[in-house]
Amino acid sequence: MRALVCSGIADELQNLAISDCPVPLPAAGQVQLKVSAASVNYPDILMCQGRYQHRPDMPFIPGMNVAGEVTAVGAAVTGFQLGERVAGSAKTGGFAEFAVIDSDQLRHIPAAVSMPVAAAFPSAYLTAYVALVRRGNLQPGETLLVHGASGGVGLAAVDLGRILGARVIATSGQAEKRQILTAYGADHCLDANAPFAAEVKALTDGRGADVIFDSIGGDVFDQSTRCIAFDGRLLVIGFMAGRFATLATNIALIKGFSVVGVRAGEYGRQFPARGQENLDAIWTLAANGQVKPRIHAELPLADAAAAMQMLADRQVVGKVVVRCDR
Q: Cβ of 55: how many Cβ atoms within 10 Å?
């Protein structure tokens, strides 16, 4: 089969190439898919750069989120039949013509949902759901501030915040992206390159944001501590700025807010029953047509490395999808 293979760690993603690889066979509890679409996520890039908590042995096939048709099932698998449309997540292996996924990470794709959308939304919306519902306890009428809002996860947080009844303030560093966010449903859009704390305070009558979704870190985290409400929840999603922020604990004490780490996958591993509930919740939203995943571009498997580079270069609003059936 054809697959995108990472042969070694490199900051500039130069060690990626399409290669012929053996077709993976499903072990017990796994399902083999003929992959139609796979979405690009920042962890895919970070693993190739050696900067992610999971460090796969080299060489490996990147790609976490896939959608396709069932072509084989391993022992002890029930509920999946050959030819069914399914989508799911694994740590690696998605940018290929075939992939294997643990059956408990798979869901049947609703009839109204396309393969690209099915590949694009689960990881982003699962992260947003765990962050806003499980960890942030976002309530209707509260103010949600989303940093990195034009990325796949950030856009999912904007969308889910809207569904949960929050007032959503989004930040992005590019004017054209802010226009898209406004059309997408954000109540207010701010320039991430400018000081935003005072603007957030002004928009909230001095109170600040109740929940802050921060996938950037660095200076953005620092500013966020100056515009968070008392009893607020500052959700740490990632560090795209490249700097881990530090916090003087007297600030959290005086302002009465919490800093909460979010790892959606690990949350499901630590609490398996809740993990299944989380997956059920986001797939129900998709089946009901309530969520609005945005596909920025679809590229063929031959251009999978270029798709990853698009995300690395921050050219994307929403998700980039690799079409492994092309």
A: 12
Bridge partners (DSSP) of residue 102 are 30
* Interval 205-228: pLDDT, tens: 999 999 999 999 889 999 999 999
φ, ψ of residue 134 to 5 degrees: the values are -75, -45
Q: Give pTM, 2 decimals.
A: 0.89
Contact 189, 171 (CB under 8 A): yes
- Centre a 10 Å sphere on the Cβ of residue 269 and count the other Cβ atoms it contains: 9
* CA–CA separation, 99 and 101 (whole Å): 7
Q: Is 183 left (phi over 0), alpha (psi -120 to 50) or beta?
A: alpha
- CATH 3.90.180.10, the chain: domain bounds: 2-112+294-323, 124-265
User: Tokens at residue 271, please?
Assistant: 């609490």
Cβ count within 10 A of residue 213: 34
What does the alpha-carbon distance between residue 26 and residue 90 come to, in Å, rounded to a whole number? 13
Per-residue tokens: 139? 């309530």
Render pLDDT for 92-122 as a digit per residue (tens, 0 to 9): 999 999 999 999 889 999 998 999 999 998 8
Domain at 124-265, CATH from 3.40.50.300, 3.40.50.1980, 3.40.1010.10, 3.90.180.10: 3.90.180.10
Helix (H) or strand (E) holding 18: strand 16-20
Beta bridge partners of 251: none
CATH code for 2-112+294-323?
3.90.180.10
Give whole-number Cα distances, 126 to 217, 218, 253, 265, in Å. Answer: 20, 24, 30, 8
